[in-house]
């Protein structure tokens, strides 16, 4: 009995190409049309898992966790120095939905840096900011500015402890003039003391005390 051989059905060429183009699991470097490149894990054609992204236009690098195409989890972001071309760390910490969220540290130009909590890409929660002039703010943040209870310590060790709003002293607070040995305690509004009382505080140990002590009422 003769055997009839039927030609094997061949997959359409476009189906084969499409199957090969699907990205899932660990992949070598994949280049985007604009020159950006990504090396790492994929899921359903989206960056998902561990991976490193390099942006061609800025030269910036992100290395860390991804979730459905967005930075999500723990990772670090660095940019090249325009002069030395060496990479400088900008942010190391937690991300959510492609924005800083959770605990992390950011390094600003001029040597300033912030360590603390983030939400939606803004400083929010508890954090410590070290400024270029040597001042340090430690306390609560809201919408990228000091907001709530916090302490600002100046380079000469004088400090303010109290309430903040929109990045300014606002509400009850104390200002310690340790260089003069005095303490002002009162109410502030938009960085301006409105009312309060000024008393001697550690005047005997102050490096530059006032000529006469404040008389007691």
TrEMBL record:
Matching entries from SMART domains are given as: MORN
Cite the entry's keywords alphabetically.
Cytoplasmic vesicle, Repeat
> What does it do?
Assembles a suppression complex (suppresome) by tethering SIRT1 and MDM2 to regulate composite modifications of p53/TP53. Confers both deacetylation-mediated functional inactivation, by SIRT1, and ubiquitination-dependent degradation, by MDM2, of p53/TP53, promoting a proliferative and cell survival behaviors. May play a role in the regulation of spermatogenesis.
Q: What does the record give as the organism's lineage?
A: Eukaryota, Metazoa, Chordata, Craniata, Vertebrata
Statement: the UniProt record of this protein carries the keyword Amino-acid biosynthesis: no
The lineage's top-level taxon is Eukaryota
Where found? Cytoplasmic vesicle, Secretory vesicle, Acrosome
**Looking at the keywords, is Repeat present?**
yes
Looking up InterPro entries in the UniProt record yields:
MORN, MORN3
Q: Which GO terms describe its cellular component?
A: acrosomal vesicle
Q: What is this protein called?
A: MORN repeat-containing protein 3
